[in-house]
């Protein structure tokens, strides 16, 4: 399997009046061609800031990648460290436009208000699929249909403001998928959509992946969706990765008390409310407790947990857990 992305020692900090917010704090992971890595955790756990860091879209000047952070993208013909590119540089924009695509929750930031949605999708199609204007228009209409927008022949000539929020979201998804990206980051892409449209879009993403071997990083708080599309899962809490494993291991052999808490609160199919899965709340990121950040909410907290941050233990080749309990179970310490 070819590696697409390698993130090492990623620290994305925000310098605020209240203190330093460690939004992403020493995160390591990799993503391979053709796989879907699901990233889960409650709001504020660092999922979105991890994806923004990869796309080089961390809000400046407050947000900053700390020295030592590395994000290597294994592109079509070269390896680039994204942390060395300036956010607005030609290289970064070309990466974002050509090989990497993203779908965020807020569609207005990626749709240009002065162009029709059709012309924006057509532009993406022409750029990436090398077809004529007429063919590109047909493909765009088909794409608009595939993301579940009714009357695509009419919608293609409308402007973003003429569409409802949910339709804009779908138009943005159509645009991102039209680029046939090598690497797609989807950050809660379907949270605002109804379950039928959501299922349609997940199918579409999987078709794209099958056809182009796309690597997908799928960020969500919805474990149903994770179960449906992820190959591997990374669980985040307070800016740190607390557990990584194959999707089966996460569902049938979870180790971290936080992962277990998330799993025991899976909402019923079709219930889209974000519920508080575990008692207590995510601690204030400027006043983190000593030791394990989850200790104040953890039913298994031991003395050592309140004293020392647990290292990451490897349970097996593809399962690692940041919890002292896993040391007792014989996990081997991962020196990184
Ligand atoms: Fe709970 Fe301790 Fe594990 Fe933290 S290290 S999750 S407090 S058992
Ligand atoms: Mg859902």
From TrEMBL:
Which InterPro entries does the record cross-reference, listed alphabetically?
AAA+_ATPase, ABC_Ni/Peptide_Import, ABC_transporter-like_ATP-bd, ABC_transporter-like_CS, Oligopep_ABC_C, P-loop_NTPase
Indicate how the chain sits in the lipid bilayer: Peripheral membrane protein
- Quote one Gene Ontology molecular function term: ATP binding
Q: Where is the ABC transporter domain?
A: 5-263
Say if the entry is tagged with keyword Membrane.
yes
What keywords is this UniProt entry annotated with?
A: ATP-binding, Cell inner membrane, Cell membrane, Membrane, Nucleotide-binding, Translocase, Transport
Q: Where, subcellularly, is it found?
A: Cell membrane
Please give the GO cellular component terms listed in this UniProt entry. Answer: plasma membrane
- Is the keyword Secreted in the record? no
The main location class comes to membrane
Name its GO BP terms in alphabetical order: peptide transport
The entry's family comment says:
Belongs to the ABC transporter superfamily.
PANTHER family given in the database record: ATPASE AAA-TYPE CORE DOMAIN-CONTAINING PROTEIN (PTHR43297:SF14), OLIGOPEPTIDE TRANSPORT ATP-BINDING PROTEIN APPD (PTHR43297)
Instruction: Write the protein's name.
Output: Peptide/nickel transport system ATP-binding protein/oligopeptide transport system ATP-binding protein
């Amino acid at each position: 399997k070819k590696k697409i992305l390698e993130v090492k020692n990623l620290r994305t900090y925000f310098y605020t009046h209240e203190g330093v917010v460690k939004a992403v704090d020493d995160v390591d992971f990799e993503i391979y061609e053709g796989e879907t890595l699901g990233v889960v955790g409650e709001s504020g756990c660092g999922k979105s800031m991890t994806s923004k860091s990869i796309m080089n879209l961390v809000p400046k000047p407050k947000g900053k990648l700390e020295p030592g952070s590395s994000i290597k993208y294994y592109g079509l013909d070269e390896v680039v460290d994204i942390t060395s590119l300036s956010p607005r540089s030609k290289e970064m924009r070309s990466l974002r436009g050509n090989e990497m695509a993203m779908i965020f929750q807020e569609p207005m930031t990626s749709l240009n208000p002065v162009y029709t949605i059709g012309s924006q999708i057509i532009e993406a199609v022409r750029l990436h699929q090398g077809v004529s204007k007429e063919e590109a228009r047909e493909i765009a209409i088909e794409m608009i249909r595939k993301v579940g927008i009714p009357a695509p022949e009419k919608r293609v000539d409308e402007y973003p403001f003429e569409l409802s929020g949910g339709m804009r979201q779908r138009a943005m998804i159509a645009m991102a998928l039209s680029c046939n990206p090598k690497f797609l980051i989807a950050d809660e892409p379907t949270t605002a959509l109804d379950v039928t449209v959501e299922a349609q879009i997940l199918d579409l993403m999987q078709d794209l992946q099958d056809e182009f071997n796309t690597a997908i990083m799928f960020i969500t708080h919805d474990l149903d969706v994770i179960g449906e599309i992820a190959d591997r899962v990374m669980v985040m809490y307070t800016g740190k990765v607390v557990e990584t494993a194959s999707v089966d291991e996460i569902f049938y052999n979870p180790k971290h008390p936080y992962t277990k808490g998330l799993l025991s609160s899976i909402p019923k199919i079709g219930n889209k409310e974000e519920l508080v899965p575990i008692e207590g709340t995510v601690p204030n990121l400027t006043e983190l407790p000593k030791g394990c950040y989850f200790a104040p909410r953890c039913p298994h907290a031991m003395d050592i947990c309140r004293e020392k941050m647990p290292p990451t233990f490897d349970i097996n080749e593809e399962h690692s857990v940041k919890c002292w309990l896993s040391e007792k179970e014989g996990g081997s310490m991962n020196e990184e």
